[in-house]
Structure prediction request, 241 residues.
Amino acid sequence: LDQFDKVEAEELRLTDIISGFIDPDQDDVAPTATHIGSELSEKELDDEDDEDEDKDDTDEDDESDEDVGIDPELAREKFSELRRTYAAMETAIQQYGRYDERTKESIDALSETFKQFRLIPKQFDRLVNDMRQTMDKVRTQERLVMRLCVDQAKMPKKTFVQLFAGNESSDAWIDEALNSGKPYAERVARYEEDLRRCVQKLKIIEEETGLSVERIKISAVVCLSVKRKHAVRRRKWSKAN
Prediction:
């Protein structure tokens, strides 16, 4: 959405971010040329990227400054729909929480809308890869925090989830655990320094991405959901042809 705002401000071309749109009711159209959902190895992906870059270099002079083949009004309509479904998801999270069934439905609706966009292949691949790497960093810290609290300090898992979920990058939940007067409080104190270090790392991840841990998780769900749906669509098209 931020990228489309730049298109509207004439800071980017529409073709810098998308190559077109997919009709959600049309299954017999060839998927966009991308290795989303493919079984290519990392080396093969790198090789393919190199080939694409070579092709881009040779074709660059032939490209006009206009967005050829994409109806700007249709693009505005599609991005407006994406903005609406994103806002609906944000509202659902605020009203019901991330794990409520209604929130999950709003995330699915966002995925369905997002999958209609034919993003530039390399851009989407990098988006998915960046999101995966960010999620790996988040999971590493979350697993360490849970191990220290649940396995080492013997905090009940239900209590840990209540304290930690939604407060991942805040020290407040640590203070609450330490001041709880519960049997596990003294044991948590033994790992306080390590826990605060993990929280600090999660804060840094948020600062680097501009997203809260909760938003990072939701973005990862949406990206990977779209990736899977594209992969299914590619397989169906391959079998049909």
In short: The chain has one domain: 2-240. The longest helix spans residues 121-152.
